[in-house]
Design a protein that fits this description.
The chain is about 40% helix and about 15% strand. It contains twelve helices and 13 strands. The strands form two sheets. A seven-stranded parallel β-sheet has the order 3-2-1-4-5-6-7. Strands 10-9-8-11-12-13 form a six-stranded parallel β-sheet, with helices on both faces.
């Protein structure tokens, strides 16, 4: 059989999050390379059983091995080494710390194991994670450090964290993520959504899972301060599914959409006055560069993605965030500079180039 087994279990999750975007983006990039007739190893997807028909993983056009086990049970079986990855492959690429153990091939040849690690934020900000999740991440990292042949990380910062955790520097490849997964806008869908929320004119936008490390309470406080200094009380539209943690306080002018489809999200990025994204900790940070690709200026924490193309703020200071919201919403010269810098930054981050780097890595491993 040979080739690469890509563990795509993240796409079975109720909230695939940024790791889900990584899987989808990587597969999109591989398809682009296929269409350009670039020679690629065969790639097979592996995941738990589908939650219903049609199976969304089949839409990627790759061979799929689906376990008979549901996702939560399958990943627990991986953790305990009761279930191994299917055999017959040269390399197994896990897209997160949910890593199936790998057996040697029938010939006794070792199978290369690549693990993508997007951050170790639970070590830096343990209070932003539930106790159970923090314990799981720590145990999963230890298993990966014991077993993996190689690691893929999205930034030098995460590479440094992995070395500190015990990984060998030469066993880590930094591959930045892409910014171009959102290709088509759904203008009608965005219009219907905004009208249902009472948003008739311009708005500020925030995108991300609603969980503590995204720092949304401070962003909402900052918006409350900035709102009175805007030309009009433009609302703050918060896009993203609920994660864990306390429910966010509802404030005047703040509207929550929940999770939205890709086309609607693309249209919201393009229509927004600005994107505000101020998490405490990110290994990369996809929403800023996705917004930049649509010509939207960004207010953000210092992140690996922004590369000086955003109005950066101290995420712990409400006043700093509020000032930046007002400046970027109203200063046309600043907006123009950020849009130009953002377009240049986003153009350098494509899923095709990320896929090329993955293929080169896979080919280099014994």
């Amino acid at each position: 059989m040979g080739g690469v087994l890509l563990v795509a279990e993240q796409l079975r999750r109720q909230v695939p999050g940024g790791i889900g975007t990584y899987v989808r983006g990587l597969l999109s990039g591989l398809t682009t390379l296929d269409e350009a007739h670039v020679e690629l190893p065969p790639v097979t997807l592996y995941a738990s059983r589908s939650r219903g028909a049609p199976d969304p993983l089949e839409a990627f056009g790759r061979p799929l091995i689906a376990s008979r086990l549901p996702g939560p049970l399958l990943t627990r079986m991986w953790d305990r080494a009761f279930v191994h990855a299917p055999g017959g492959f040269d390399l197994v690429h896990s897209v997160s710390l949910a890593v199936p153990p790998v057996s040697r091939s029938s010939s006794g040849r070792a199978v290369a194991e690549v693990v993508a690690i997007h951050d170790v934020a639970w070590r830096h900000r343990p209070g932003d994670y539930p106790n159970r999740g923090r314990r799981w991440h720590e145990a999963a990292l230890r298993r990966a450090l014991r077993r993996a042949t190689h690691f893929v990380v999205p930034s030098e910062a995460v590479a440094g964290d992995l070395v500190e955790a015990g990984a060998r520097e030469r066993a880590i490849s930094v591959i930045p993520l892409g910014s171009d997964i959102l290709r088509h806008r759904d203008e009608d869908g965005a219009t219907v959504l905004l009208q249902s929320l009472g948003v008739r004119d311009q708005f500020l936008l925030s995108v991300g899972t609603l969980e503590p490390r995204k720092n949304l309470p401070r962003l909402i406080d900052a918006y409350g301060v900035a709102r009175h200094s805007l030309p009009e009380p433009w609302p703050l539209v918060v896009v993203g599914p609920p994660g864990w943690g306390p429910e966010l306080e509802r404030r005047e002018g703040v509207v929550f959409t929940g999770r939205v489809g890709d086309g609607t999200l693309a249209s919201l990025y393009a229509r927004a006055r600005l994107l505000a994204y101020v998490p405490f900790e990110e290994g990369f940070g996809l929403p800023p560069v996705e917004a930049m690709r649509f010509g939207t200026p960004v207010v953000s924490s210092p992140l690996p993605t922004t590369g000086g193309a955003a109005r950066e703020v101290d995420p712990t200071r409400v006043g700093d965030i509020a000032q930046a919201l007002v400046e970027v919403a109203t200063d046309d010269a600043l907006r123009a500079r950020l849009v130009a810098a953002g377009a240049e930054r986003a153009s350098s981050l494509t899923w095709e180039s990320a896929a090329r780097a993955h293929v080169a890595l896979w080919s280099s491993l014994p």
